[in-house]
Amino acid sequence: MQTIQRHKTVPVSIDHVVVGGNAPVVVQSMTNTDTADVVRTVKQVAELAKAGSELVRITVNNMESAEAVPEIRERLDKMNCSVPLVGDFHFNGHKLLTAVPECAQALAKFRINPGNVGRGLKRDEQFASMIEFACRYDKAVRIGVNWGSLDQELLASMLDDNAKLAKPRDLLAVQHDALIESALGSAQKAESYGLAHDKIIISCKLSGVQGLIHAYRDLASRCDYPLHLGLTEAGMGSKGIVASTAALSVLLQEGIGDTIRISLTPEPGAPREKEVVVGQEILQSMGLRSFTPQVVACPGCGRTSSEYFQHLAEDIQSYLRHQMPVWKSDYPGVESMSVAVMGCVVNGPGESKHANIGISLPGNGEKPVAPVYEDGEKTVTLKGEHIAEEFQVLVNQYVERTYSPKV
Length: 407
What we know:
Elements: E1 12-14, E2 17-19, E3 26-30, H1 38-51, E4 55-59, H2 63-78, E5 85-89, H3 93-99, H4 101-106, E6 109-112, H5 121-136, E7 140-146, H6 152-163, H7 171-192, E8 200-205, H8 209-222, E9 227-229, E10 235-236, H9 237-253, E11 259-260, E12 264-265, H10 274-285, E13 294-297, H11 308-330, E14 338-342, H12 348-354, E15 357-360, E16 369-374, E17 377-383, H13 387-403
Parallel strand pairs: 3-4, 3-11, 4-5, 5-6, 6-7, 7-8, 8-9, 9-11, 10-12, 13-14, 14-15
Antiparallel strand pairs: 1-2, 15-16, 16-17
C-alpha cells in the first residue's frame, strides 16, 4: 500500500492536543448553542467530545458569552471532559477579551478572521490587541479566511493593481490571491506582534471543491503552518457529506491538512455529532487514522431480498460505535478491527475471511445457516432464531481474546 507523505508543518500545542508536525490529523467540531446558555453549551460540548471531537469551537460574540466561557470550562473539567475549547471571535473580540480576560485564560485557542477584526487604521490595532492576549496567556491562534468575510480593502487594492496590468487576470484568480495573501500576511503580522511561529494555524475555507483544493495546494507550497481543512457552508445531508469528502480526500491524499472540520448544516432534529462521525470516517477510509471497528457489508441484490443482513449490519455498526468509549481504554488496537456482515454465498465467505471476524448470512434459496469466520478460519456455523444475538456475543469474545492487554 502507498504511504501518504504528510506535508511538513510545525507542531502547534492546543492544551494536550497537538496539531501539525507528526501528529495525527485532528477532528474538530463547533457548537450551535447560544454560548451564554451554559447548561446547553456544556451538554453539547460534552456530546461532541464523546463522539470524538478532539477540539470544540464555541461562539464568543457578546459580553454574556465571554463571561460564560470560564464557567463552561469549569463545568467540563468537573465532568472529566478535557476537550480544548476554541473561541470563535468576529468584530469585537478585542473588546471582549479586554473586558473579560478570564475568557482568554479558559480558552485553548482563538479563531480570528482578519477580515472581521476592524476597518482602516483600526484593523491593525484591534488585531494586535487580540494577538497580545494570545501571547500573554500562551494561546494558539487560528487565522481563518473565507469568502464570506474576505478583507474587502485588501481585495479592492489587489483589484486596482490588477486593472493596471496590460493583461488583467480574471476576478476569481485575484480573489484567490487575496485569500492567500490575507491568511499568510496576517500570520506574518501576528509573528511581528510577538506570537510564536508554532502558535499559528491557518485556514482558507471556500464553499467550492475545486477552489478549496487550489487554495490549500497554494498555501502548502508557501508555508509550514499547520492547515485546518474544511469546506465552508458545505450544505445539508448527502450533498454536504459528498462535497466535503471530495475536497478533503484529494488534499489529504496529497498530505495536506493537519486538522479537519466537516461543516454540515444539521437536518432538523439530527444530532450535531454527525459531522464528527463523517470526519472520522473520511480519515479512517483513507487509512490515516482508526477510530472505531469498520463494518464491511454488501449492498444487497436479487439474491438477498431479505432485509435481515441489513438490520444486522446496522445493529453491529451501532453497537461497535457505542462500545468504543469503553473498548478504547480496555482493548488497545480494537479501533482497527474489521467486521463483515454479508448477505449470501457469492461474496459472503470470501469477504468474511478477509475481515477479523465475519458472518455470511444465507441468501434466497440457500441453506438457513450462517458460517462465522475469525481471522480467515471458519469457527462456527450459526442457525435458528437468534443468529444476531449469538454473533454479537462472538464479536465480544473476539475483542476480549484478541485485544486484551498482554500481562
